[in-house]
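Note to self: user wants both folds in one dump. Writing first protein now.
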Amino acid sequence: MASTKANLMARSKITAQGQISVPADVRKKLGVGPGASLEWLDEGGKIMVRRAAGRTFDDLHKAAFPDGPPSGPPVDVKKAIAKRMRERYARD
C-alpha cells in the first residue's frame, strides 16, 4: 500500500476564543477572502478543510456556459413564454 506524505503548507495558532487566522497562502490556494465560509471534514481520522460550497454568480455562469456566453441575439423570456403558451394551449 502506497503512503502519501503531506507537506506542511502553513501554521496557525488558536486564540483563547477558539479562533484561527487562515494564512495568506492557504486563502489564496482555496480562493477565499473576507466573509467566505470554510468546511471542516473528518476523513478517516484526518481533518481536512475546504472552501464551502457556496457559489457566486460567476461560478454559475461558468457552469451554465463553459464555452463562453451564448451566441445570437438575447432572448426575450416573457415573449418566448407567451409564444410557447399560445402554441401549447391554442384552441382550433
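First done. Writing the second protein, which came from a different request thread.
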Amino acid sequence: MFVRFFYSAVDPADSDEVQRMFVEDIKPAFEELGCESVELLVSTETNAGGLVEGLVISRWPSTAAMAKALGSRAVTESLVRVRQLLRQEPVTRTFEVLE
C-alpha cells in the first residue's frame, strides 16, 4: 500500500470552496479510480501568514493505480481548479506502508 500526502494552504475566505471541491469532485474521482481512502485535514488555526493549512491523505494499492488516477481527466481538472486557490506551493510526498 502507498500513502500520498498533498499539503498546501489557502486564504481563509477560500476554505469552504476547497472543502466543497474535495467532497464533490476530488474524493469521488479518487475513489472511482482505485483510491482505497482519501481524507482532507484542515488546520484549526491559521498559520503565521494568516492562511489555513490543509493536507489530503490518500491510500493506494499501487503506485501504478495512483499514477493512473492522477493522470485522469477528472482528477486533472479538479486539481487545476484547486490549485487556483492555493497560496503556498503544494508539497506532495508518497510513502510505502511497510507491513
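Dump finished. Worth passing along: The chain has a mean pLDDT of 93.
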